[in-house]
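[Solved] Which block belongs to which protein?

Original post:
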Amino acid sequence: MQYSQEDENFPLTRFESMLKTNNILFFDSNEFENIIHHYLENGKIALAKRAIKLGLSQHPSSVNLRLFQVEIFILGDKFQEADDLLDRLHNLEPTNEEIFIQKANVLSKQDKHQKAINTLLIAIDLSNTPEDDADLYALVGMEYLFLDQFENAIVFFKKCLESDTADYSALHNIVYCYDFLDQNSEAIEYLNSYLDLNPYCEVAWHQLGRQYFTIKEYAKASSAFDFAIISDDTFVGAYIEKGKVLEKLKKYEEAIENYKITLALDDPTSFALLRTGQCYAKLEQEDLAIQFFKKTIDEDPMLDKGWIAITKFYMKRLNYQKALYYINKAVIVDGDNVVYWKLYATVNKRLNFLEEAERGYKKALDLGNFELDTWLNRSDVLTTLGEYNTAIYNLIQTSEFYPESAEVEYRLAGLYFATHQSEEGRFHLKNATRLNIDYNFIISELFPQLIDRPMIRAIISEAKKASN
């Protein structure tokens, strides 16, 4: 059931005034179809149901109105009712392709995708118009996507584009399939053949540029994005991608020009603001870099890359007080972001605010960041704070995730010796030297007071001889 823009002059006002007054007015079946379609398109399901009910009371033999009833059943997950009604309609109109399309819809909703495909193929055989064929080929392609059969999906999305060359969603889906299959060269070949027939298709040029970017052919990517811009000089996505290519080519001034064009064409995007800031940072224009990083976090406070960029900018310049100011703001905005807490810990550690550093590492662990460096950093801070027992407990937990880590074992050995638990210390030091003798410097770095102990020196010395 296809509708054009001209169909929007149907008597909605008349229908809705009828609902308010309870005066029953007559509408022909086409008017009811247009009214129902309008309500479904706008998500007004209750009004669509009322229109279907009134429509069927006036036109009980209308198959199209019954098909809308099928849509309502599907929306409510009433698949059996939908299927039963479709069977009855099929008996009335066995060659109505819409009945098969809705049958396929019911099957798809129940994850019976192969049966949905078979049903859609029947609808294609019954179809009379190329435009309908394009839609049906796209539906088959989507069913193959659900089955992860990307090669078959490509075949049908290509058929869709042959019937309707302007169906850009099909074009996107073809490229998506090639991307999933890591078939960049096949994607490039297809896009070039498509562009031979549609040389001013900005979407295809954009997709071609992205493929060249993926395989690091930056000059070709740049040319493709240029053609996308020639085809549509307001295409924001093409300027963004061109900027990314220019960054790879270290042409930061030109990259900035492209990002700034996007800011003039449309509402500022946090991505363009961030990339502009990064380019200024590369050019060592620090004031402008900071200006754009600030604009990024103002534009989108939830974009973690903005807070991370401005924090790292100051860290790189050893301005830890400023870095701390921004990472403190970041954890207030999003207290569940692991990267923020790790940066928070690092900055506080550099400033020798060890209690806060420990809090940051612990928070990262609590949020599920079980990387080895997080465990080890927390342990080292606890050790520096003299919290030996907590550090031991932290490392025992670490060893559950990293049972063969020499770095963990050396730390445990040092902590046990430092707390006068010599047997445990000896056990872990022997483990540590067995795993990797080269990490023995950990003892002298973290526990310099222990390095002259005869037992420790003997174990390390023996292990060194054994490894030579």
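(Second protein starts here: sequence line, then its structure tokens.)
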Amino acid sequence: MKIIVDAMGGDNAPESAVWGGALAAKQFGEEVVLVGREEEVRAVLQQKGMADTPGVSIVNAVDVVDMHDDPATVLRRKPDSSMAVAFKMLKSGEGDALVSAGNTGALLSGATLYGGRIKGIRRGALAPVMPCASGQVMLCDAGANTECTPEYLLQFAFLGSLYAEKINGVKNPRVGLVNNGTEDTKGDTLRKETYKLLRAAGDAGRLNFVGNVEGSMVPLGACDVAVCDGFAGNVMLKTIEGVAKFMAGEIKKVFYRNLATKMAYLPCKKGMDEFRDLFNQDKIGGAPFLGIAKPVIKAHGSSNEMAVMNAVRQAIAYTKSGMIEAVSENIEYMTVASEG
């Protein structure tokens, strides 16, 4: 298997992307292709003592997509960028999956343009996981589609459920629709119409639909897959991340208040370390673009080498899972017949 890594994508590129990609090749025994400015890539490998790592190769790409570029046009305007070259390789079959910590919008555009959507899928969805009381919950969508139809959300539900089962190992994943109340009459037109579709899929035994879930219920483990439009999902994700950082900071202030509280911290240190680990995105690696015909993993922009290594691990698991084939097999249940 060959995983393509955008070596110039992300805030810490090329160091983190190159180092993480080489670590992944060494750790997982699969081929990794580092796409980026060759001299800079080789310099990082040399610096980290990984110049001769088996399974690592380099493809030169002289340009870079940065976070300020227009996502809709940048791959056409910068055809020699590391991201554009990586996507061309993916499309031509020179790699099995792609990992990048670069511009999210450009990555989605490239995934759709070069990877293509699975036949019948209307929109690709960004689906990160976050910690919750029952383990982990996947948000689908979390930023790729700010305007959605009920059919999009129905497809997000199936995509998230299949991924949770096949890659995350969740048996019969519980699917919830993020809404402003648990009653089936709650929400705007989008939520009400989506509820009907998800309830029908649940009654038919195709989804384990648990109904509407409020935002406060998602971190408490009410579902394994939280279905929402990209606007609501992104706001929820960023809010939870912000609250987690705020709480961690306030707890730290309590322990650092005086000598007595500092002493009291010592027996709590292991538990506090475990608490911080819950929100350590580096261990997860990244978020998949679901519904795309070839695996594309978005690592977070500030990824370090461990995050990139785990994003490659995620790409390997996705490629081996049969997820894309499973979506194709279930596509008839994921579409809404047009009236007329």
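Accepted answer:
You had them paired correctly. Confirming on the second one: The CA atoms of residues 154 and 198 lie 6 Å apart.
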